[in-house]
Amino acid sequence: MRNIDLSPLYRSFIGFDHLASMIDNASRNEKQATYPPYNIELLADDKYRITMAVAGFAEPEIEIEVQENTLLVTGNKPGKDEERKFLHKGISERNFERKFQLGDHVKVLGADLQNGLLHIDLERVIPEAKKPRKIEIGNSFIENKAE
Fold this sequence. Notes:
By secondary structure, the protein is mostly beta strands. The chain has 2 domains: 1-31, no CATH class; 34-130, Immunoglobulin-like (Sandwich). The protein contains 2 helices and 7 strands, in the order ααβββββββ. It has helices at 7-12, 17-29; strands at residues 38-44, 47-53, 62-67, 70-75, 96-101, 106-114, 117-124. The strands form 2 sheets. It has a 4-stranded antiparallel beta sheet with strand order 1-2-7-6, with no helix packed on it. Strands 3-4-5 form a 3-stranded antiparallel beta sheet, with no helix packed on it. The longest helix is centred in the first third of the chain and has 13 residues, at 17-29. The protein is elongated.
């Protein structure tokens, strides 16, 4: 078991407390259940796909919500059918909640459910003001007023 002391980050970095909190939360969430299993795939530069194995769930039973930089996927099965008797039960049809922390400027494009797999497509769209820009040498804004 790993235990990381993040208190130096809290007292040394002003304005980065949000980052330290995210690292702290991520280390705590490592102990979360692994249901449902999922993949995170890089499709192209700045394009991603999350694929979750949600066997037994129909579209109306799955909810996808984005709030700030958190993607929340929940699955709720209606009341259990008590009349069913299983000799072996290997398909887990339990409710779930899975959270994903999204990076800055990552947008959810859409979702699709096919063959028991939920695909969620994402894209990082960096605004023009945040993209790197080249500054040419020799184009100074300061004019020489010594004339």
